[in-house]
Amino acid sequence: MTGGRKQEIWILAFKSALLLYVVFRSYAEAGGAWYIASILFYMCLELTTHTVRIPLLRNLAGAATILFLLSVSDELHPLLFTLAPMAIYGLGAAFLRSPILLFLLTLAPLPFLPPDAQVTYGFIGAIGFLFQAALGEYERTIAAQKQTSEQLQADNLRLTKTLAENDEYLKQSAYTIQLEERSRLSQEIHDKIGHAMTGALIQMEAAKRLQATDAERSAELLQNAITISKEGIETIRQVLKNMKPLSEQLGVNRMKLFVEQFEGSHGLKTVVTFAGDMDRIEPIHWKIIQQNVTEALTNTVKYAGATSAAIHIEVLRTLVKASVTDNGAGAAKVVKGLGIAGMEERAAAVNGQVIVDGSRGFSVTTLLPFAGA
Questions:
Q1: Which end of the chain is more exposed for a tag (fewer CB within 10 A), N or C?
Q2: 3 falls in which pLDDT band (50, 70, 90)?
Q3: Read out DSSP for 105-165?
Q4: What mean pLDDT do residues 192-210 have?
């Protein structure tokens, strides 16, 4: 059901209640065939006003309702004209936008009514005006909210489409980078290693032919082949070394990516900081740190009631320290559940330990010693 249709129903309900009041108050004095016919004709005019969709016909029906009530109230009962304020408001609203002018127009007939009907008319006119004005404001608010909702939906669809396009672009970019890297490696292997191996092979073939006739020259060629082969092997080692990222880069980048994803998924403001030589952290240490940080942040979201958390990873002389602290309520007594027990087990596997403190917020610190320390 549309907002305009709902407004029509509310107005009809108000007019029906008003009509019942007027009939109840005036029927005993003015009852009869003409009275009943007048009420029925009034109802027909009102239904016409609310069912016709053509504005001109609606306005004509509203004007006819006002004139009809004015004429029958003189002949039958003055109280019948108290049905007019709603019709006057409806007709005036089609031409006037000022609430003050509409209110004055609604009460305009007041001086021309009998004194005993003026109070009732003024009261009903004021109530009817406030009712329709409030109803109109409500409908405008609903319409504005609907428009805002539709705009937000459109923006959401547009952003979703943009994100999908960006995601596809990132995938294509990553694939293109992979192809370019493969092409670069292929060219580098061909230019450096391929040429070196080909040169070494030629030297060894020549040395083989000269082995029986010129042993000295054969030995020289073999030595050249060995030197070229060593250089080729060193080149292979250097290429592979350049391809493989440092464990420090893998661990730090993976931790930063995890924090960004966690913050986006749970709405917890999270920062991560590093100190010391991250390259000293071994892969097993990074794995334990990653798992313990994940567990600590999950507990923060579930139980701490915190709005932010901080992760700090520091490499000391003999150990690596990873701490997670939040600004939550903390706990005077820390009860170790499965989560904390799991963190302690992981740390103990490399002779490390976990320290939990709930005095100011909640903090979980993982200490992992280096091998031989």
A1: N
A2: low
A3: HHTTTGGGS-HHHHHHHHHHHHHHHHHHHHHHHHHHHHHHHHHHHHHHHHHHHHHHHHHHH
A4: 73
Name the 3-class secondary structure at 319.
strand
Kindly state the tokens that stand for 189.
């292997």
Across 54-64, average pLDDT? 83
What is the CATH classification number for the domain harbouring 332? 3.30.565.10
Residue 241 within a domain? no
86 occurs within a structural domain: yes
- Strand order across the beta sheet in which 269-275 lies: 269-275, 308-315, 319-326, 362-369, 353-357
Predicted confidence band at 266 (pLDDT cuts at 50, 70, 90)?
confident
Task: Tell me which of 114, 145, 176 is where a domain ends.
Answer: 145
Classify residue 308 by burial, with Cβ atoms within 10 Å: 0-12, 13-18, 19+.
middle
Domain coverage including residue 327: 247-369
Q: Note whether residue 159 is domain-resident.
A: no
Q: Distance between CA 303 and CA 308 in Å, rounded?
A: 13
Domain count, the chain: 2
Assess whether pLDDT exceeds 90 at residue 315: yes
